[in-house]
């Protein structure tokens, strides 16, 4: 949960300075190993604060991401702006993100935290 804690602090600081839509977080959970977690997530899906990351306004997505679709959406929303991608995951993920970025005609500059 360390990465989520860092993101939560960043969101809190950006909210203090009214940074608008400067940061968009799209967390993905691709595996469940705990049945209690699955039930808890299902029961709290409509709450304002995400039950997994605890970050208000940024809901966890479940299942495998469709990276190309995400990049097309992000590129459309932010046309003409510099976009940075920060991710937490295996190094191999960087290759998948780079490929999806190219397919979506967006430029990927990333840091793996």
Topology:
Elements: H1 2-16, E1 28-29, H2 35-43, E2 61-62, H3 67-77, E3 85-87, H4 91-103, E4 110-112
Parallel strand pairs: 1-2, 3-4
Helix pairs in contact: 3-4
Structure description:
By secondary structure, this protein is mostly helical. Helix content is 42%, strand content 9%. It has four helices and four strands; from the N terminus they run αβαβαβαβ. The strands form two sheets. A two-stranded parallel sheet has the order 1-2. Strands 3-4 form a two-stranded parallel ribbon. α3 crosses α4. It is globular.
Number of helices: 4
Radius of gyration of CA atoms, rounded to a whole number: 15 Å
Overall pLDDT: 77
Count all strands and give the number: 4
Strand line-up across the major sheet: 1-2
H/E series: HEHEHEHE
Broad structural category: mainly alpha
Low-confidence stretches: none
User: How far apart are the first and last residues' alpha carbons, in Å?
Assistant: 13 Å
- How would a crystallographer describe the biggest sheet? 2 strands, parallel
Beta-strand portion reads: 5-15%
Helix content: 40-55%
Principal-axis shape: globular
């Amino acid at each position: 949960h360390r990465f989520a804690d860092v993101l939560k602090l960043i969101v809190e600081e950006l909210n203090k300075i009214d940074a608008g839509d400067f940061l968009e977080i799209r967390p993905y959970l691709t595996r469940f190993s705990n049945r209690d977690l699955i039930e808890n997530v299902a029961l709290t899906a409509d709450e304002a604060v995400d039950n997994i990351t605890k970050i208000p306004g940024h809901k966890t997505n479940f299942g495998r991401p469709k990276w190309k679709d995400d990049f097309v959406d992000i590129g459309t929303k932010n046309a003409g702006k510099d976009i940075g991608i920060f991710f937490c995951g295996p190094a191999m993920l960087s290759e998948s993100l780079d490929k999806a970025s190219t397919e979506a005609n967006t430029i990927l500059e990333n840091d793996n935290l």
